[in-house]
Amino acid sequence: xxxxxxxxxxxxxxxxxxxxxxxxxxxxxxxxxxxxxxxxxxxxxxxxxxxxxxxxxxxxxxxxxxxxxxxxxxxxxxxxxxxxxxxxxxxxxxxxxxxxxxxxxxxxxxxxxxxxxxxxxxxxxxxxxxxxxxxxxxxxxxxxxxxxxxxxxx
Length: 154
Hints:
This protein is α/β, with parallel strands linked by helices. It is built from five helices and eight strands, in the order αβαββαβαβββαβ. The chain has helices at 2-14, 30-37, 70-77, 86-93, 138-145; strands at 19-23, 45-52, 57-63, 81-83, 110-114, 122-126, 132-137, 148-150. A hairpin with a 4-residue loop joins β2 (45-52) and β3 (57-63). It starts with a helix and ends with a strand.
């Protein structure tokens, strides 16, 4: 898992974006993460791994104060989706649930981003480990990922 954190930092450095890494007590929920970061819950980004009906994995990003509407996401993708199991997430991302960062491209996954994330100038997310977070501009995330943008949050 340290390897995924290091790969993320190298990717951010290579793309010459401004970001800040913070170390904190391990967190496992978006609420815990917002608390230790001292930020509003809505500035967090949740990265959820879904499996499509044809057994492919995708990364879906949503603001931490929202939930994903799987029906809306399925409509955007054109295939039914369901949340990946914790074992599948570990196998695909080499990260535990709750620590997956939003750069699905580093996991070889197509990424879908809910437009609501862009309502925040700065965003926060776990960085592949439960005890490290990254803060950066939402526009930098968008520009580096080039995800499919849609509206699929509740």
